[in-house]
């Protein structure tokens, strides 16, 4: 496959922000396309607006690109896509949301500062993020990524999720969009996907048998779907 025929794929990371957890997915993509992995500072608490500014600096200005918003970064991907940048030709949302995916947690936001982030072993998150798809390699990768992020940064990102609402920006998205939904997602419920579909009914949803960490646990299937989406953009 000639990678020059496909847009550049720009990957916006999950809550860890390191970008390192994309390695299985990038490996599965092979040489299908050029890839840009965006990273966020692990030691500076920043809100969604500030992280959006960082992500925008990594977007290509001289060639077409498709933006991938994974989990925490979905709202950032929506905000950037709403700007209608001339080189963006597509949007991929993966296990993510336009607004707080767990609205009932809003009333518990005061507990964020009490969470023992940085004390609880990263393996504690494995059942939630990986479930039965957990492997030693995935647990180790998850642990490495989480341990690079300061507790204050993780708390700031959790607070951002509780208060986010990109519904207005989603309504302005006018590029072809697909959603990769993990059927075993314990973090982002199906209701969050439906809220996005209600505002963008033309969006296609692909269901993948995977946990919340879809791109890590099912990288080959995800790569196949994303490459197919980009190839379809070439024939439109």
Molecular structure report:
The chain is α/β, with parallel strands linked by helices and 236 residues long. It has one domain: Rossmann fold (3-Layer(aba) Sandwich). It contains ten helices and six strands, in the order βαβαβαβααααβαβαα. It has helices at 23-29, 48-57, 74-81, 126-129, 136-147, 151-163, 167-171, 190-199, 214-217, 219-235; strands spanning 8-12, 35-37, 65-70, 88-94, 177-182, 204-208. Strands 2-1-3-4-5-6 form a six-stranded parallel sheet, with helices on both faces. It starts with 7 loop residues before the first strand and ends with a helix.
What is the C-alpha radius of gyration, as a whole number of Å?
A: 17 Å
Which superfamily, in CATH terms, is the homologous superfamily? Alpha/Beta hydrolase fold, catalytic domain
CATH topology: Rossmann fold
What CATH architecture do you see? 3-Layer(aba) Sandwich
* Sheet with the most strands: spatial strand order: 2-1-3-4-5-6
**Helical stretch tally:** 10
pLDDT averaged over residues: 90
Apparent shape: globular
What count of structural domains?
1
Largest sheet: 6 strands, parallel
Given helix and strand content, the structural type is alpha/beta
The helix content is 25-40%
Low-pLDDT parts are: none
How much of the sequence is in beta strands? 5-15%
Q: Which H/E pattern describes the elements?
A: EHEHEHEHHHHEHEHH
Query: What is the count of β-strands?
Result: 6
* First and last CA, distance: 18 Å
CATH domain class name: Alpha Beta
């Amino acid at each position: 496959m000639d990678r020059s025929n496909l847009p550049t794929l720009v990957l916006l990371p999950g809550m860890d922000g390191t970008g390192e957890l994309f390695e299985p997915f990038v490996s599965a993509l092979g040489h299908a396309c050029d890839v840009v992995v965006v990273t966020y500072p692990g030691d500076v608490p920043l809100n969604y607006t500030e992280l959006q500014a960082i992500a925008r600096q990594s977007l290509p200005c001289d060639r077409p690109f498709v933006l991938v918003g994974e989990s925490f970064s979905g709202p950032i991907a929506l905000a950037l896509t709403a700007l209608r940048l001339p080189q963006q030709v597509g949007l991929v949302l993966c296990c993510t949301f336009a607004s707080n995916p767990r609205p009932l947690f809003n009333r518990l936001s005061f507990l964020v500062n009490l969470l023992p982030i940085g004390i609880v072993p990263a393996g504690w998150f494995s059942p939630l993020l990986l479930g039965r798809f957990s492997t030693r390699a995935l647990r180790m990768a998850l642990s490495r990524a989480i341990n690079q992020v300061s507790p204050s940064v993780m708390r700031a990102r959790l607070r951002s999720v509780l208060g986010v609402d990109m519904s207005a920006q989603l309504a302005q998205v006018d590029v072809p969009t697909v959603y990769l939904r993990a059927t075993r997602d314990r973090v982002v419920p199906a209701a969050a996907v439906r809220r996005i579909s209600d505002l963008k009914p033309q969006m296609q949803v692909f269901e993948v048998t995977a946990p919340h960490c879809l791109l890590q646990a099912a990288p080959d299937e995800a790569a196949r779907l994303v490459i197919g989406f980009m190839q379809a953009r070439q024939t439109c």
